[in-house]
Design a protein that fits this description.
- It is a single chain.
- This protein is α/β, with parallel strands linked by helices.
- It has three domains: 136 residues, HAD superfamily/HAD-like (Rossmann fold), CATH 3.40.50.1000; 66 residues, Putative phosphatase, domain 2 (DNA polymerase, domain 1); 206 residues, P-loop containing nucleotide triphosphate hydrolases (Rossmann fold), CATH 3.40.50.
- Helix content is 49%, strand content 14%.
- It has a six-stranded parallel beta sheet with strand order 5-4-1-6-7-8, with helices on both faces. The protein has a five-stranded parallel beta sheet with strand order 10-11-9-12-13, sandwiched between helices. A two-stranded antiparallel sheet has the order 2-3.
- Strand 4, helix 5 and strand 5 form a beta-alpha-beta unit.
- Helix 6 crosses helix 7, helix 7 packs parallel to helix 8 and helix 13 packs antiparallel against helix 14.
- The relative contact order is 0.11.
- The structure holds thymidine-5'-phosphate (TMP).
- Thymidine-5'-phosphate binds next to helix 13.
Length: 430
């Protein structure tokens, strides 16, 4: 028995788990253009999300019956190559799914999309492992229909099952399958549409949905991800892109950086990186990094992870080991000792390492902007930094996700995202 009101929850995909409108509407427009058909001015394109598209092309968009297959072909090609990558997972959905699973609830998807496409989308977002069953339509003209899809998504035995969907088709399908439906008004259907169709309850936001499905549940622990690399590895660009991508994947991202991340630590950053402070001794520098880190862990990182957030931190203690331990030759053991009370057990769950030879990295960086105090160090310094990073990685291969940063930016972004999502989705299903 589950401690939550429902022990089986079946979700619709488009407009319920994922923001799908942008992707679908944009591919529908492309298909209509390629067909040479005008979209009728009175059509609310939002409403193409939900019902089977084949019907929509004909009944809503006025495509002649004998050209519907052609429209579907145009749509499919564009959607597969482009439209589906415009999808995003609604905020808090990942947390909700983890709560349900931790509560022993059967979780499933029932969508009118072809099964292969639905699975591809869920795989891309690393969501598939969070479901017991994924049901989608079969290939060919004979369709199962929503009630049958929902029936097949349910477990053999359950006490209280519920469907969650954003359109009247979901409410009607649930009725056909003999279960109630919670309507979500953040998708493509309106509150009126859902009420009229007979939704048992309405959730206006994913937070409200969470309260209905998992009352009283605490947020599951978040994730602590750090990004490391030599100066000039393109780290800031990649952290920007990763942040954007992770938000699209439905994570509540807390972006932060070291040295810095909160007022006290940012003030310390100013002192460390100031080119006026050339007389700063190495031990002072190492202790300032550790001091900034202590406050950052205490004030930002630990509370955010406990609150279920994904902390994306640009540099962390590995930087101290590499730069002060290796670069400044203070020794790895000394740096780890100094940092032990600052880190206080809050080690990263994963570390993305942007691998690039320090000479190439530095020439890129120096070409881009005025160097700060640390970037002005000799080549031999950066060589020792790289060697120390490589030593750390060889000792902890499990934690490091190494990506080749000598590639073009888009390839680095793609590789980094894949590596990070694979790791986080393995963590989420534990
Ligand atoms: P950034 O360029 O990534 O903002 O980092 C600032 C500089 O600080 C960079 O040269 C690396 C250096 N650094 C250390 O030497 N030790 C540390 O612990 C951290 C976090 C950064």
């Amino acid at each position: 028995m589950s401690r939550f009101p429902y022990d089986a929850v079946v979700f619709d995909l488009d407009g319920t788990l994922c923001e799908a409108e942008t992707g679908i509407v944009s591919s529908v427009k492309v298909a209509m253009e390629q067909l040479g058909c005008e979209i009728p001015a009175w059509v609310d394109l939002k409403l193409v999300v939900g019902p089977p598209l084949r019907d929509t092309f004909h009944t809503m968009l006025g495509v002649p019956e004998n050209r519907v297959e052609e429209a579907m072909d145009f749509y499919r090609v564009d959607f597969n190559n482009r439209g589906r990558f415009l999808y995003s997972v609604y905020p808090k959905i990942r947390t909700l799914l983890r709560m349900l699973r931790e509560g022993g609830v059967h979780t499933a998807v029932a969508t009118s999309k072809p099964l292969k496409l639905a699975t591809d989308i869920l795989d891309w977002f690393g969501l598939t492992p969070l479901f017991d069953v994924v049901m989608g339509e079969v290939e060919g003209p004979q369709k199962l229909g929503k009630p049958e899809l929902i029936r097949r998504a349910l477990p053999e035995r359950y006490h209280h099952a519920v469907m969650v969907g954003d359109r009247m088709f979901d409410v009607e399908g649930a009725r056909g399958a003999g279960i109630p439906c919670i309507g979500v008004a953040y998708g493509c259907g309106s509150v009126e549409e859902l009420r009229e169709a007979g939704a048992a309850e309405i959730a206006e936001t994913t937070e409200e949905l969470q309260k209905l499905l998992c009352p009283g549940a605490e947020a599951p622990r978040g994730f602590f991800l750090t990004v490391e690399g030599p100066d000039g590895s393109g780290k800031t660009t990649q952290v920007d892109r990763l942040e954007k991508n992770l938000r699209k994947f439905g994570f509540t991202v807390r972006r932060t950086r070291e040295p810095g991340g909160c007022a006290i630590s940012e003030a310390i950053r100013g002192i460390i990186l100031d080119t006026k402070n050339m007389e700063m001794c190495d031990t002072c520098e190492a202790l300032l990094y550790a001091a900034a880190r202590a406050q950052h862990v205490h004030q930002v990182i630990r509370p955010a992870v406990a609150n279920g957030e994904l902390v994306l931190c640009d540099r962390f203690v590995d930087s101290s080991v590499a730069y002060q331990g290796g670069g400044r030759e203070l020794g790895v053991a000394t740096i780890q000792q100094i940092n032990a009370p600052a880190v206080d057990g809050m080690l990263p769950d994963a570390t993305l390492y942007l691998a690039i030879d320090h000479r190439e990295a530095l020439s890129r960086r120096l070409a881009a902007s005025t160097p700060d105090r640390l970037e002005l160090q000799a080549v031999s310094f950066h060589g020792r930094v790289q060697a120390a990073y490589e030593q750390l990685i060889s000792e902890d291969e499990e934690r490091f996700l190494v990506v080749n940063a000598a590639q073009d930016r888009d390839s680095v972004e793609k590789d980094a995202l894949k590596a990070v999502i694979d790791r986080i989705s393995a963590y989420e299903q534990r």
